[in-house]
Amino acid sequence: MNDTTALATMGFSRANHVGIVTSNLDASIRFYEALTGKKAAPQDKIGGKRMAGVLGLDKALIRYATIHLDNLNIDLLQYEAPEPSKAQYANNQIGAMHLCFEVDNIDDAVARLCKAGIRLQGDPITFMEEDGLKAGFGTAVAYFDDPDGTHLEIIAPQGPFKRTGN
Question: Can you give the residue ranges of the VOC domain (predicted)?
Answer without folding.
Answer: 14-157
